[in-house]
Amino acid sequence: MGRPKSNNVQINISIPIEWKTELENLARIYSVEEGETITFLDLMRRGIQEKYQLGEQENE
Hints:
The protein is mainly alpha-helical. The protein has two helices and no strands. The protein is 50% helix and 0% strand.
């Protein structure tokens, strides 16, 4: 049995270590405020969504 089909694409990027550190710190704060685990990658996704006004994609 294969993997479920997804419209997601994986990309690799490089960011300065200082950015990653700051994003991890922010993610900890958001995790406490929202009562769920938020990663720095989640914050990057949110930032891209907001910047480019992208809607949520539903997987079928």
